[in-house]
Design brief:
Elements lengths: L2 E7 L3 H11 L7 E7 L4 E7 L2 H7 L10 E7 L14 E2 L5 E6 L5 H10 L10 H11 L4 H11 L4 E7 L5 E7 L4 E5 L2 E5 L11 E4 L4 E6 L3 E4 L5 E2 L4 E2 L15 H7 L1 H9 L3 E2 L2 E2 L8 H5 L3 E6 L1 H18 L3 E5 H4 L10 E7 L5 H12 L3 E6 L5 H5 L2 E4 L12 H21 L4 H22 L2 H9 L6 E6 L2 H17 L2 E6 L16 E6 L5 H12 L4 E7 L11 E5 L7 H19 L18
Parallel strand pairs: 18-19, 18-20, 20-21, 21-22, 23-24, 23-25, 25-26, 26-27
Antiparallel strand pairs: 1-4, 1-10, 2-3, 2-4, 5-6, 6-7, 7-8, 8-12, 9-10, 9-11, 11-15, 12-13, 13-14, 16-17
The chain binds fructose -6-phosphate.
The site of fructose -6-phosphate has 15 residues, from helix 9 and helix 16.
């Protein structure tokens, strides 16, 4: 999704804006632009394509002098990715410039009114409507203008605004799109996300819905939707500055895969105390936990895949019925949410539009909601009744790896906690499982250590046309994620099937040499999956199997076997996914794909 930055201070703005935008590249974009007040006018430069085009155009910002500016990376929604549609956008007299993240739902209606009043538009965007509307309302007072704008706009927005008449102030406002403000030694910044400001400051304010930030060279203040002053507390960001950089790895995805042992440890450790699971942030009494009648787990993409695993885990351990839903379906299907239901929304970014809408739908029906979220202070984190954070740190690669692993851990912990309280596992069983959870970081490390073998294997498949992933039970959930990882970063067509389902149609696609990745970590289903392996192999498939150490019998059926260390049957996903992530990564690298920024994809899908 789009990225916003803004700066006001003593330093030259343009290089800071370009640097900030480079830290937001992970959000996905197809054009970029900056506006800088040069002491006389607001200058705008924009370019379609990668940021380096804008860097070249502005000689890394040198040709745009000035200490107040805004910048933007655009991921096209209204209008094609062109220079004209790129942000910032001006009013007709070029005295107001604006950058926008989000979607204005009533922009056509507003545009019609503005056209009737004689406004002329240069682009197809909903954002240009904002620039002209600001112009229409502007009578010399920016705050009054912005509050009028807020009342008129429907939809989502994070805005950075410059008024030429008030060139010593940077204005920012948000509703349903992320925006932060950072206070640095030599000025203040706005940004869509923390990595863009980390180089300059760790003191950050999270702007809430319908709040306005007013940044001058030496002060930051805030207003509400009525323009009244409000006070806000800043947060100190604890992330290591390197956490938002590549840290010596070739790609963010590679770095993030290697951070998984730490991520898993960080998500687990604070919730394991004296051999018990303590999830303080859950804020539920034991009676409330016993009173849960049904769990609805709602998410998108990889986060949704963790829910498929979680269904098996919650039902198996805590004996609570679980319904899993794609957020984009849940929000429109009029779900039956009865008393005693708990709706869990899982999201790395905490800003995914469908997941946020699903959360609001659940809340509007009065059921309890719990967000499992990675980004602190994000919309889902703020709006859910309770929030359980995954401590994965910033995830930059579009394809999720470490946040996915952390989401699994959070759900294992919850399921085990619920099982403990409801008495569906014995204390002994629980202690055994906690022991297995604690071993996961080391086991993941071990699997990551076998990367060369997987890389060699992956190199043989860089020209593959179709790959199928199969598994039963939890192994099916792993297959879904393995398949998504491969297709999203390598552009190889792949599909995941419950292994028993393949022969009901899809097996007709198996040809001589087709790669089938079979996951077989569930002892009770192991023999069944072997039969499915034999079925595809006799039709010419080449089978790569992922199974538990000791299951050597599989070597008779599969062509290539990857063993994962022994763990509890409910936790195998956390281990089996590692070789599948590595496989996808090396196929993508081998094909020369843009691993961290796959085509057509955005890290945070903040539009429907
Ligand atoms: C795939 C991927 C996406 C996200 C999905 C939800 O690698 O990252 O499928 O899992 O867009 O995003 P969040 O978790 O931010 O809600």
């Amino acid at each position: 999704m789009c990225g916003i930055v803004g700066y006001i201070g003593e330093a030259q703005a343009a290089p800071i804006l370009l640097d900030g935008l480079s830290k937001l590249e992970y959000r996905g974009y197809d054009s970029a632009g900056i506006a800088v007040y040069d002491g006389t006018d607001i200058q705008v430069k924009k370019a379609t394509g990668r940021l380096k085009v804008l860097n070249e155009l502005t000689h890394d910002g040198v040709t745009m002098p000035g200490t107040l500016g805004i910048g933007h990376t655009r991921w096209a929604t209204h209008g094609a990715p062109t220079d004209a549609n790129a942000h910032p956008h001006y009013n007709s007299t070029e005295t107001i410039a604006v950058v926008h993240n989000g979607i204005i739902e009533n922009y056509l209606k507003v545009k019609k009114r503005l056209l009737e009043k004689g406004y002329v538009f240069q682009s197809d965007t909903d954002t240009e409507v904002i620039a002209h509307l600001l112009d229409y309302y502007y009578k010399g007072d920016p705050i009054e203008t912005i509050t009028k704008l807020m009342l008129r706009l429907e939809g989502s927005y994070a805005l950075g605004i410059i008024f030429k008449d008030h060139a010593d102030v940077l204005y920012a406002v948000r509703k349903d799109s992320p925006l932060i403000v950072g206070k640095a030694a030599e000025g203040s910044l706005i940004a869509s996300d923390v990595p863009a400001v980390l180089k300059y400051t760790r003191e950050v304010y999270f702007i809430q819905n319908e709040e306005i930030a007013v940044l001058s060279r030496d002060d930051i203040s805030f207003r509400n939707v009525d323009g009244e002053p409000i006070t806000k507390e800043s947060t100190t960001i604890e992330w290591d500055i390197n956490a938002a950089e590549k840290g010596g790895y070739e790609h963010f995805m590679q770095k993030e895969m290697y951070e998984q042992p730490k991520t898993v440890r960080d998500t687990l450790s604070p919730r394991l105390k004296d051999g018990r699971i303590v999830i303080e942030e859950l804020g539920m009494t034991d009676d409330e936990i016993r009173g849960i009648r049904k769990i609805h787990i709602v998410a998108c993409g990889s986060a949704y895949h963790t829910r498929v695993t979680a269904k098996y885990v919650f039902e198996g351990l805590a004996r609570i019925p679980v319904e899993v839903d794609l957020a984009s379906e849940f929000r429109y299907r009029n779900p039956i949410l009865e008393e005693g239901a708990l709706v869990i929304i899982i999201s790395q970014s905490g800003e995914t539009a469908d997941s946020l809408a699903a959360l609001r739908e659940a809340r509007s029906r009065g059921v309890k909601t719990l967000g499992i979220v990675n980004v602190v202070g994000s919309s889902i984190a703020r709006e859910a009744d309770k929030v359980m954070y995954t401590w994965a740190g910033p995830e930059i690669a579009v394809a999720t790896t470490k946040a996915y692993s952390a989401q699994l851990i959070a759900q294992y912990l919850l399921a085990l906690k619920f099982a403990q309280v409801r008495g569906t596992v014995t204390e002994r069983e629980c202690a055994g499982m906690i022991g297995d959870l604690k071993k996961l970081p080391e086991q993941i490390e071990l699997l990551l250590g076998s990367k060369e073998r997987i890389q060699r294997f992956a190199n043989r498949y860089i020209a593959a046309k179709d790959v199928f992933f199969i598994g039963r039970g939890i192994d099916y959930a792993i297959s879904l994620e393995g398949s998504l990882k491969l297709k999203e970063i390598s552009y190889i067509h792949s599909e995941a099937y419950a292994a028993g389902e393949l022969k009901h149609g899809t097996i007709s696609l198996i040809e001589e040499g087709t790669l089938v990745a079979a996951v077989a970590t569930q002892e009770d289903l192991y023999k069944k999956t072997i039969s499915n392996i034999v079925e595809v192999r006799t039709r010419g498939a080449f089978v790569m199997a992922v199974t538990n150490t000791g299951n050597t019998e599989i070597e008779k059926a599969a062509d290539y076997v990857i063993y994962i260390p022994q763990t509890n049957r409910y936790f195998t996903n956390s281990l089996a996914i590692i070789p599948l992530q590595l496989f996808s990564y090396y196929v993508s690298v081998g094909r020369g794909c843009d691993v961290d920024k796959p085509r057509n994809l955005a890290k945070s899908v903040t539009v429907e």
